[in-house]
């Protein structure tokens, strides 16, 4: 998950620099959580380097776009990016990546690009309609005025897109073959004369027929087997979101509202969104790492409003289990909602927990309880599964360790220093091992990785740890603190116990100890000779417990 940043100009400058510079960016757009760049050429390792920037959740390359997932602050970053790209705006702005894509990917990219910029307008309209429904039911006098929230949508979504696609081809053809003398006049004339009638007579009716057919097909499946329709959509929706093609389903929802004044597909989409929100909250409740808990809570709150990218890319998908649990329970919750007859009567631009009220209807009073039940089952099941079965895939972590090296996270909050700053040659001359030192500001020692307590001294001032790959670490709190005989120390774990990163191991009275002893704490890899490289990952200075400080490679 992204680290909080306030210097958005620096972040956007780093993104543009690592993306190959402003001249390499053909266009830049944004949606609710992503900075969407179209690069002329993708520099080597650009994805990994940008992903590592503070403030960036992850990077996704799909549909010809280099999508930088930032989260809630994407608007601030986009403003800074737009300002820097302003001078390059006219230079090859319409260029697109040269990589070849199949027709389906191009179509989905086009549909996604059309709906993403207006999602907030649609969302605001949906929330307003939900508020009007509540007011209409709560205040009978409102109904006496004859004013009712009316839903009118056009189903003509695809015809303009096809028209523009044909127009671009025809315009290029005419500009290439018409004489220069008449090109400026006859190119637009022929385009209008040919494509406007074609759109009205052929394209519009055909596409509306096809769109209505797709909507009718889904509705037929729903009528024949509502639980199956709900389970399929609820279970796979967030998988579609991963690939950034979920906006392609919007025409079906709009068509249902336009034709029938109601929709069931949005119910299942909504429950799928709620599942990832619940998964983020489940990780918040289950995880022990402070930073992960903070990130998960933030992603869960964002998910309440229907924005799940931070939860998916930053929390649930990297750990797999929460994402899978969410999808499973979304399928179950959607099936239950379908069995109970849940329906929505107002379009929600960003379906989520708040848009559950869109299922309220005087004519169908059971719709809202049905929708709420499906959502409640999904939330309870997802969080319960995470609490029961956990959220960290140990096997994946071990595989990553073997390839990328093992990471040691800071066991203390304080100031990171070199071992040379330790006033004890046993440590400063690396006699016991290689590593770093920390001058603590808080009296709590946390587990720096997953592993086992391999040594625990009776005087409680030092502890030996071993990770799953055999790395041995010694944390020695203070200098000559062995003489305290355990006074001012308290241990929370026993030798041989398993530990998870972030578990509290030792607490000590920092103020009392530093009255008589130097509290600088060496953190040493005692079997350093078993490794080819030990790299300090963080600059000397302030450090928080849980920050990555060392990388160890075989």
3D architecture notes:
The chain is of the alpha+beta class. The protein has helices at 8-18, 46-51, 74-85, 103-115, 119-138, 140-143, 158-177, 180-224, 226-242, 250-260, 265-286, 290-304, 309-319, 321-340, 367-389, 394-404, 425-428, 510-513; strands at 25-30, 34-39, 58-62, 65-69, 406-409, 414-417, 434-440, 444-446, 451-456, 462-467, 472-476, 489-491, 498-499, 504-508, 521-525, 533-536, 541-543, 548-553. It has an eight-stranded antiparallel β-sheet with strand order 13-9-10-11-15-7-6-17, with no helix packed on it. Strands 1-2-4-3 form a four-stranded antiparallel β-sheet. A three-stranded antiparallel β-sheet has the order 5-18-16. A hairpin with a 3-residue loop joins strand 1 (25-30) and strand 2 (34-39). Helix 9 (226-242) packs across helix 11.
Taking the sheet with the most strands, its summary is: 8 strands, antiparallel
What level of helicity do the residues show? 40-55%
Number of strands: 18
How many individual helices?
18
Tell me the overall shape. Answer: flat
Q: Widest sheet: strand order? A: 13-9-10-11-15-7-6-17
Whole-number tally of structural domains = 4
Unreliable residue runs: 91-96, 147-155, 395-403
Span of the ends, CA to CA: 27 Å
Category by helix and strand content: alpha+beta
Radius of gyration: 29 Å
Q: How much is the average pLDDT?
A: 80
